[in-house]
Every structure is written in structure tokens, then in C-alpha cells.
């Protein structure tokens, strides 16, 4: 199953984000799940929080939810909102390698 996490940074958490960035990256790189793609958006428009997306291949949605809950950014409230959902890609070059 392919899953995605769409997270939006909480206002006023830039210092916390900077402090935890290396820990967050290490958590993603050391993940026991198969992360296919991960990264932040381009710099946000004025007044909007930055966003980040993780796309992973897992056995169950619950497995990914547990992984996400352990992310330092999630645990510390750097993200103001986190949406996790199953994604069913239907075409594209990367799909051939899944």
C-alpha cells in the first residue's frame, strides 16, 4: 500500500523546526518503513506555513500512522496539521518500480 503524509507547519514554530531538523532527518533516514519520497515544499507564500510530504510503501495504514507519530516534528508540534491517507497512484514513471 502506498500512503502519503501532508503536513503543514504551525505558526511560530520556526525555532523549534530549526532545533529539531537534524533529528527529524535522522528519523526519516533510519525509518523501518520504505520511504519512497520525502521533502518540504518550496518556500511558502507570505502568511502561509511551509508544507512537507512523505510518500511511503507500507503494509498497513496503522504502520505508517505509528511511524508518523514518532517523528520529532510531529511529537513536538512543529506541524500544525498532519493528514495521512492511502494513495492509489494510477500512472507515472515511478509506478513501474513499485
Description:
It is a single chain. The protein has 98 residues and is an alpha+beta fold. It has a single domain, classed as 2-Layer Sandwich (Alpha-Beta Plaits), CATH 3.30.70. 31% of the residues lie in helices and 32% in strands. It contains 3 helices and 4 strands; from the N terminus they run E-H-E-E-H-H-E. The chain has a 4-stranded antiparallel beta sheet with strand order 2-3-1-4. The longest helix is centred in the first third of the chain and has 16 residues, at 14-29. The chain is globular. It starts with a strand and ends in an 11-residue tail after the last strand. The mean pLDDT is 91.
Provide a short characterization of the protein structure.
This protein has three helices and four strands. 31% of the residues lie in helices and 32% in strands. InterPro entries: Dimeric_a/b-barrel, YCII.
CATH fold call: Alpha-Beta Plaits
CATH class reads: Alpha Beta
Number of separate structural domains: 1
Overall, the morphology is globular
The portion of residues assigned to helices is 25-40%
How many helices? 3
**CATH superfamily descriptor:** Dimeric alpha+beta barrel
Oligomer: single chain
- Poorly predicted segments: none
Output the radius of gyration. Answer: 14 Å
Protein name: YCII-related domain-containing protein
InterPro entries: Dimeric_a/b-barrel, YCII
Family: Belongs to the YciI family.
Domain YCII-related: 1-88
Amino acid at each position: 500500500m502506498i500512503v502519503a503524509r501532508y503536513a503543514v507547519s504551525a505558526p511560530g514554530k520556526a525555532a523549534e523546526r530549526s532545533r529539531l531538523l537534524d533529528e527529524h532527518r535522522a528519523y526519516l533516514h533510519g525509518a523501518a518503513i520504505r520511504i519512497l519520497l520525502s521533502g518540504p515544499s518550496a518556500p511558502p507564500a507570505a502568511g502561509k506555513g511551509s508544507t512537507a510530504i512523505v510518500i511511503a510503501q507500507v503494509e498497513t495504514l496503522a504502520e505508517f500512522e505509528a511511524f508518523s507519530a514518532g517523528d520529532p516534528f510531529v511529537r513536538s508540534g512543529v506541524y500544525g496539521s498532519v493528514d495521512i491517507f492511502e494513495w492509489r497512484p494510477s500512472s507515472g514513471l515511478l509506478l513501474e518500480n513499485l
